[in-house]
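Exercise 7. Given the encoded structure of a 187-residue chain, write a plausible sequence.
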């Protein structure tokens, strides 16, 4: 599938600034920035929002990563899965946990808490959401209220990201390929 919107937007000062940041941070300009740059207000608001989201620290980062990726997998956003794998791999997360997110129920890689977090992310992502009281209470008791609010909001944020990317036809940019271990050349 190809993008449903041009990834060659007008070159505003804001787009040049976020492109510089994206190149410096990710090694390339990420397609969601290219897509939203067609609307400067959306690009500005989205960029500011993502910077603010990055400062939330009440939830364990690995639990946050699993929730975000479970939501992206439920929606089927290949761009988000590709980027999420790369981003979390470079922060030292177990590659098996990252690979197994789409099949987490069958995997033995996760703790019971990690499974509960991914079940919550999936339940929130369904339309309509199917979040049960028992699961929320377990997470609230285990994580605390501040972390539960952050978890809930992160899943909602990923729903927005994944749905925008999927609707605009954004697919993998090859991030995951950059973190795979190369096989030794046999002599």
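Solution.
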């Amino acid at each position: 599938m190809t993008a449903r919107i041009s990834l060659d937007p007008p070159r505003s000062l804001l787009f040049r600034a976020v492109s510089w940041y994206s190149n410096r941070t990710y090694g390339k300009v990420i397609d969601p920035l290219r897509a939203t740059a067609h609307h400067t207000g959306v690009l500005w608001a989205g960029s500011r929002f993502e910077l603010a989201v990055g400062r939330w620290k009440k939830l364990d980062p690995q639990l946050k990563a699993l929730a975000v990726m479970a939501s992206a997998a439920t929606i089927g956003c290949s761009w988000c899965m590709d980027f999420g794998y790369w981003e979390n791999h470079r922060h030292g997360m177990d590659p098996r946990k990252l690979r197994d997110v789409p099949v987490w129920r069958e995997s033995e890689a996760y703790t019971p808490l990690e499974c509960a977090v991914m079940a919550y992310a999936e339940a929130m992502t369904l339309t309509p959401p199917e979040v049960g009281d028992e699961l929320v209470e377990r997470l609230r008791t285990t994580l605390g209220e501040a972390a539960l609010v952050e978890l809930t909001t992160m899943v909602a944020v990923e729903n927005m990201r994944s749905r925008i990317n999927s609707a605009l036809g954004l697919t993998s940019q090859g991030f995951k390929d950059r973190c795979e271990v190369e096989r030794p050349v046999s002599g």
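Remark. The mean pLDDT is 94. Students should compare their own answers with the one above.
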